[in-house]
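hey can u run this one w/ magnesium ion bound, need the structure tokens asap thx
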Amino acid sequence: MTNEEQYIDSLFEQDEILENIREATSAAGMPDIAVAQGYGRLLTMLVSMNNVTNALEIGALGGYSGVCIARGLQQGGRLTCLELLPQFAEVAKTNVTKAGFGEQIDYMIGDAKLSLEQLVERNERFQFFFIDADKEGYPAYLEYAIRLADPGAIIVADNILLRGRTINENKQGPAVQAVRSFNETIVRDARLQSTILPGYDGLAIARVL
Ligand code: DHB
Ligand code: MG
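ok here u go:
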């Protein structure tokens, strides 16, 4: 983290619930890669500003971003989380339940593309998407999000800088190439209005027109 990011984070009071989730996630042996605090706050704000009743998260990890999203939902709103690993989904479920959001969050376990295909078949619609899963999947996840979006829906994606690999020409692996392609699409696609924030590990934000 930069000194500027640290300074800004230090202005905010510790969020006990989210810090507990970070600790419980690490204690469960999972990687410490939950979304940055500042972006977690932004998720809550974007969800509440857009009157979201149905949100979709791709990549649950330990439930940190799930709580950030759930905090912004309208009364009676729901969050669906897609998670590849059943053991991660169990940890997330425990954590979000402790945080008071167990009733509002559903988990779909397994390959996100199969779950997304099911959501398309069921004709589900969402007003908010958070993409934070395997980076090679980002281009496909963006297409699915657009298909599942109500007009005006917000799509957010974490880690679009890949800790600098995105802008390092020597890096040409599949995740890096997928994220570069994702970034170009989200910026250029005529179906979207978009911006990219370069702070922390980079966050893309789009609105479906
Ligand atoms: C990393 C961070 C993330 O937020 C993520 O979703 C995946 C990987 C990382 O820093 O390696
Ligand atoms: Mg991430």
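The chain has one domain: 3-208. anyway lmk if its weird
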